[in-house]
Amino acid sequence: MPFSQKRINQLTNIAIYLLKSEHPEDISSLKDFLTIVPSREKIKQILITAINQLIDTEPQKIYWLFKNPTYLQPEIDIKIIVTQKLNEKLLAWEFKPEDIHFNENGNLEFNAAAKDRLMSTNYSSDNYAVLKLVQLFLTEEI
């Protein structure tokens, strides 16, 4: 029996709420709860939609999930989802592919000019969460 879009939206909202907690137990409970969804693809879709919404609203939460990718495996690979979304955003901000790359650990890296531009440019409030997420990568201790 297919799930209605309303039900999918409800499950996505539950996923967002639990993913924001930064507690592995909550993520495990979420994954157990989502077993009510009859399709692995639908579960994946719900989680990806939740992650994409969090990228646009909760940069610190996404950064934590990115640094703890095993909590969402095997259902999704958070590093792939986040890197794709950030790459799309940065290219839309007129960065060039050579300005940015993701290293072998999946971490975001920038050339010096791009890093300076990101740290000094004011972006619209619509892009605040994504910019904050990028800045978290830029200021992390390696």
Give a verbal description of the structure:
With 142 residues, the protein is mainly alpha-helical. It contains seven helices and two strands. A two-stranded antiparallel ribbon has the order 1-2. Helix 1 crosses helix 3 and helix 4 packs across helix 7.
Strand content: under 5%
Cα distance, first to last residue?
Answer: 48 Å
Radius of gyration: 16 Å
Largest sheet geometry: 2 strands, antiparallel
In DSSP terms (H or I, runs of 4 or more residues), the helix count works out at 7
Mean pLDDT: 86
Assign the structural class, choosing from mainly alpha, mainly beta, alpha/beta, alpha+beta, or little secondary structure.
mainly alpha
Topology:
Blueprint: H1 5-19, H2 24-33, H3 40-55, H4 59-67, H5 78-92, E1 100-102, E2 108-110, H6 112-120, H7 128-139
Antiparallel strand pairs: 1-2
